[in-house]
């Protein structure tokens, strides 16, 4: 394993999430700034997506084939036509890429889609709460 004080790297870590674009088809941008330089460590964000949004597994597979993103989705079979009230939470493990402008910074974006909600009288908006992701740091390197 690489000699890195993981506690120091995790201390003072900041995580931000941004929804880019408008409407039902958005991009979720995740940015992580570690407390110290991670020196070749792998960084990932584990996110629980509520039923109101989803990642399309077919779109994700296409992005991965073109090396545009690295992610794992649980479950990997999703009903993309289901409305919010009959959908379930999803777990997304998104691998972040180093940011060339900052040695302690990592980022990745993934397309997310909003689901239809139940009809509501007198409102045109639905609230979808996106929790903060867990940051996973792997600093073990092997010759194999």
UniProtKB/TrEMBL annotation:
Pathway stated in the Swiss-Prot or TrEMBL entry: Glycolipid biosynthesis; glycosylphosphatidylinositol-anchor biosynthesis
UniProt main location, coarse: endoplasmic reticulum
BP GO annotations: GPI anchor biosynthetic process
UniProt keyword annotations, A-Z: Endoplasmic reticulum, Glycoprotein, GPI-anchor biosynthesis, Membrane, Transmembrane, Transmembrane helix
Topological category with respect to the lipid bilayer: Single-pass membrane protein
Cellular component, GO annotation: endoplasmic reticulum membrane
Subcellular location: Endoplasmic reticulum membrane
InterPro entries cross-referenced by the UniProt entry: PIG-X/PBN1, PIGX
Domain of life: Eukaryota
Pfam family, one: PIG-X
Signal peptide from the UniProt entry: none
Function field: Stabilizing subunit of the glycosylphosphatidylinositol-mannosyltransferase I complex which catalyzes the transfer of the first mannose, via an alpha-1,4 bond from a dolichol-phosphate-mannose (Dol-P-Man) to the glucosaminyl acyl phosphatidylinositol (GlcN-(acyl)PI) intermediate to generate alpha-D-Man-(1->4)-alpha-D-GlcN-(1->6)-(1-radyl,2-acyl-sn-glycero-3-phospho)-2-acyl-inositol and participates in the sixth step of the glycosylphosphatidylinositol-anchor biosynthesis. Probably acts by stabilizing the mannosyltransferase PIGM.
Protein family per UniProt: Belongs to the PIGX family.
Name assigned to this protein: Phosphatidylinositol-glycan biosynthesis class X protein
